[in-house]
Design brief:
Number of helices: 1
Largest sheet: 2 strands, antiparallel
Number of strands: 2
Structural class: alpha+beta
Strand order of the largest sheet: 1-2
Shape: extended
Low-confidence stretches: none
Distance between the termini: 13 Å
Length: 40
């Protein structure tokens, strides 16, 4: 799991696939992230 500080832009979020199971809504897909990676 990756946490994106500041969130994902709404245009990208709305284009992600939605899970088909009951429960809290989750979205998934392949995305490319560029930038500086930090741990902790």
């Amino acid at each position: 799991m990756i946490w994106v500080e500041g969130g994902i832009p709404l245009k990208i979020h709305d284009s992600l696939q939605r899970q088909q199971m009951m429960g809290p809504e989750e979205r998934f897909d392949k995305i490319r992230i560029k930038g500086e990676y930090e741990t902790g």
